[in-house]
Write a structure and sequence with these properties.
The complex is a heterodimer. Chain A is an all-alpha fold. Chain A is about 80% helix and about 0% strand. Chain A is built from ten helices and two strands, in the order ααββαααααααα. Chain B has a domain at about 5-80 and about 160-175 and about 195-290: P-loop containing nucleotide triphosphate hydrolases (Rossmann fold). In chain B, about 40% of the residues lie in helices and about 20% in strands. Classes of the chains: A mainly alpha, B alpha/beta.
Chain lengths: ~260, ~290
């Protein structure tokens, strides 16, 4: 009985939910939106890309996992920059009231700016780079958009360190470096990782938009090209891929995040 | 014998919200001899923790001075081992690492093996030899405070400062840890200053009990010598007629303070909202129990 309940919850219910959505999709394609390809047609047209995920037939005609890797490689670069800049920035804001007062307003203004707005600026910034311009602009956009959750969560983590811990550091007269390494960093780590996880989610959102605008090969670039070539089935393939990859990234990060939580 | 710790005219005031200053502690004078165990007793919020915090160097005094072993105290340092009310262990470190953090800092000239021995010695003295590598989350409140005590003693401080260290424990654990504290203290012969609001704890542990008047402008109200021979046994002390006399003296002092406060309140004096009202009934309850 218990075993059955477990299976129902974890296997059957998500399947039922997915079937309901696919049914809705199929109904839509048959009724109010005749241009929407139905599920079966989508699969038939897309299966070549799924079944040969690493094939390369042309610059914008590659297996879906190959596109994913192309996108991820840009995400990794931008995300790394975001963490390298965002974490120390968060520490400064969390530790220093002066720093926080000086920079918090400008951060709050830059934070809600859409990636679509940053990308053209990125292109301008790296115009001198010639054929690398679009790649550098995409990395720039990923970095600047995904940085904020890391900055703000790190700052919140540093601010929430109990005075007790700082007193311990003071009483033992730990050096600044020791205090940072033994007290501040471990105490703020769970918060920081929440920031890292949110940042990664944003980085993945941004790369798709950046590729669509620049036409770089990748999941987003492929999606936009197929829209222009009227192969609508591939739009749905791309959406599903983007969703699944985003989900997997988030899961991976929360596994690490949960390991860092103590009592 | 010369004074080891000397507080003279120690004062602390904060700018009050809405102008003026609120004086927490005023002209606090106290002399403590080397190796002495002194308790500071008073109602919650009377400023006794503030005095301890100033000696620890965590709160800068606004007036007066502190001299410890011939040197003026400026800022915190490992020459004063502090045991906090909540043990303040770092939750990402094991009991061993928590103690080692300070030991590595203080005994930086000692080699690894010597430092390991110091940490393990103090953890075993407080009875934690089996829980050395557990994290605070796996330890009970009482065991965490044992780590806190081990950490303070392991620094080989000139002086121990204990800020209501057993306040958060149930009474059985409290008795046990008071005994642990006395054992370690006797072995090491450190000078100790304990802040408490527990009358029995103060009598059982100390050579002298310093009674503080209620704030604002708290100061030393009275000092009582506790001349039970050491090592002390709780049972013997409790049975002695002297114990009742000392206890009555302390409680009377605290009662008078509470009454003064009550009278002030009724006369529309300064309200002491930060002082929990249960203290008075606490004392009353203890009297009834007797």
């Amino acid at each position: 009985m218990k075993q059955g309940g477990f299976k129902l919850d974890w296997l059957l219910l998500p399947c039922l939910g997915s079937i309901a959505v696919i049914l809705l999709w199929w109904l839509s394609s048959k009724t109010w939106s005749k241009d929407l390809p139905d599920p079966l047609k989508t699969w038939n047209v897309s299966k070549e890309y799924v079944l040969e995920p690493f094939a390369k037939r042309g610059e914008l005609d590659q297996g879906i996992l190959r596109f994913t890797l192309l996108s991820l490689s840009l995400v990794v670069k931008g995300y790394a920059i975001a963490l390298i800049l965002g974490t120390p920035l968060g520490f400064c804001i969390g530790l220093s009231k002066t720093f926080s007062k000086a920079f918090d307003p400008i951060f709050q203004i830059l934070r809600p700016v859409s990636p679509l707005a940053w990308l053209p600026l990125g292109m301008v910034l790296f115009l001198g780079a010639g054929k690398n311009t679009s790649e550098l602009a995409a990395i720039f956009t990923v970095a600047i958009c995904s940085m904020w959750p890391t900055v703000l969560n790190t700052a919140a983590g540093v601010r929430s360190i109990p005075q007790d811990y700082l007193n311990v550091a003071k009483v033992l007269r730990l050096s600044r470096y020791q205090t940072l390494r033994k007290v501040l960093l471990p105490a703020a780590l769970p918060y920081m990782f929440t920031g890292f996880r949110l940042s990664l989610g944003i980085a993945w959102l941004v790369i798709v938009a950046a590729e669509m605008l620049t036409g770089r090969p990748g999941v987003g670039g492929f999606l936009w090209q197929e829209y222009n070539s009227l192969i609508y089935e591939h739009i749905i393939l791309c959406i599903l891929t983007i969703g699944i990859v985003g989900f997997v990234l988030d899961r991976l990060m929360s596994v690490v995040e949960n390991r860092l939580k103590f009592a | 014998m010369s004074e080891f710790l000397e507080l003279s005219k120690l004062s602390k005031s904060y700018p009050a919200p809405g102008g003026g200053v609120s004086v927490v502690v005023k002209d606090f004078d106290l002399k403590v001899k080397k190796g002495e165990f002194v308790s500071l007793i008073g109602h919650s919020g009377c400023g006794k923790s503030t005095v301890l915090s100033m000696i620890a160097g965590l709160t800068p005094p606004t007036g007066g001075g502190i001299i410890l072993a011939g040197k003026e105290v400026v800022g915190p340092g490992p020459d004063r081992g502090v045991v906090f009310q909540s043990p303040c262990l770092l939750p990402w470190m094991t009991a061993y690492e928590n103690v080692a953090l300070g030991v590595n800092q203080v005994f930086y000239t000692a080699n690894k093996e010597e430092r390991r021995q110091i940490v393990e010695y103090y953890l075993s003295v407080v009875g934690l030899e089996d829980s050395v590598h557990k994290r605070p989350a796996e330890l009970s409140q009482g065991m965490r405070q044992r780590v806190g005590i081990a950490r303070a003693f392991a620094l080989a401080p000139k002086m121990l400062l204990l800020d209501e260290p057993f306040g958060m424990l149930d009474s059985l654990t409290r008795y046990e840890l008071q005994q642990v504290l006395l054992n370690v203290w006797r072995k090491d012969q450190r000078t100790a200053l304990l802040v408490t609001h527990d009358v029995d704890e103060a009598i059982f542990l100390s050579d002298r009990v310093v009674m503080m008047t209620d704030g604002p402008e708290a100061e030393v109200g009275d000092i009582m010598d506790v001349e039970f021979p050491r090592p002390r046994s709780r049972k013997k002390i409790m049975e002695s007629p002297l114990y009742d006399r000392l206890r009555a003296h302390l409680i009377e002092f605290l009662e008078v303070q509470a009454h003064k406060k009550g009278a002030e309140k009724e006369n529309g004096g300064v309200p002491q909202s930060h002082r929990p009202p249960q203290n008075k009934s606490d004392v009353a309850l203890k009297l009834e129990l007797k």
